Amino acid sequence: MYVAVKGGERAIENAHRLLAHERRGDREVPELTLAQIYEQLALGVDRVMAEGSLYDRELAALAIKQARGDLIEAIFLVRAFRATLPRFGATEPVDTGRMQIRRRISSTFKDIPGGQILGPTFDYTHRLLDPQLAEGFVPEVPATGEVSEAEMPRVTDILGRDGLIEPSPQAEPDAPVGDLTREPLSFPADRDLRLQNLARADEGFLLALGYSTQRGYGRNHPFAGEIRFGEVEVEFFAEDAGFAVPLGAIALTECQMVNQFKGSATEAPCFTRGYGLAFGQSERKTMSMALVDRSLRARELGEEVRAPAQDEEFVMSHSDNVQATGFVEHLKLPHYVDFQSELGLLRRLRQEFAEANASEPLQEAAE
Q1: Strand, coil or helix: what is 287?
Q2: pTM, full prediction
Q3: Which residues are CB-neighbours of 325 under 8 A, at least 6 positions away?
Q4: Measured between alpha carbons, how far is 292 from 287 in angstroms, rounded to an integer?
Q5: pLDDT tens digits, residue range 27-83?
Q6: Which residue, 1, 52, 82, 235, has fewest beta-carbon neighbours within 10 Å?
Q7: Is the distance from CB of 204 to CB of 292 less than 8 angstroms?
């Protein structure tokens, strides 16, 4: 049995002990290990890594365990830890065209070079609870085959060869790239900052915004040109060596969204692009990201800005779940002085209202 502890500091210390007790749960149940979390709750780990902006499966698993499964709190923990890390430099841009693909689908063409690869997905499962999983069910080993050596060009590259989609922006090696983790957010924001913001944005918020664009709140008629998930090699340019050296491989999900076409008196109509990229297998996140990315390009494409998903200040200022959580949850902290001030003002206004109404019958009687 737990009793309240008087005194602010002692109460907080006891709250921490109680949190640790509740987090551990029943001592008769084996403690959850980090390996169990990052192996069996992989999609939750991927989300924490993506929105926490730190690719480390073990640390993400630790954050989930510490947060008792609250993914936004876990993202907060990862962001805080990330802020303590030294920065040695920036890696070379990853080439998703050379991805070791584990899953690759397109809703625009049935037959694509390299073929459709279904991979691990819920897309074709029945949404029914499986009681076998509660009994320690061991699944069948999936069928395996030789790794395909066939080229798997992006669907957008295929459309681009015929000029049917707007050209992909060419990277300028010497152009500065913004960094939201080091510089304050300002508007208007270029696409590099917008994509950084969307990559760190809350998945639920992006999903709602992306859905709103499909329902008419923003000019957006999308097709999933391609979604691919797999491992990509990361390289770092070593000054001493004079060339880029591989650091390892990370799992990424990329979404190329093909959107309604545009044109003008001087340009032939063509499809437009929306783009999403995130750590791990994060398909819902990258699809939502691609929808909102395209929507935020409204001014660039000469479209009227009428919907929330087209307003970059609205989207970028409210998409960060860590900032949103902090501002909402600070309401739980003491606001005694502020409230007493409001309460005193309200009482004075009510008294003035009562006095004014009380004097009206007297005036009527005098008349």
Answers
A1: helix
A2: 0.88
A3: 72, 73, 76
A4: 9
A5: 999 999 999 999 999 999 999 999 999 999 999 999 999 999 999 999 999 999 999
A6: 1
A7: no
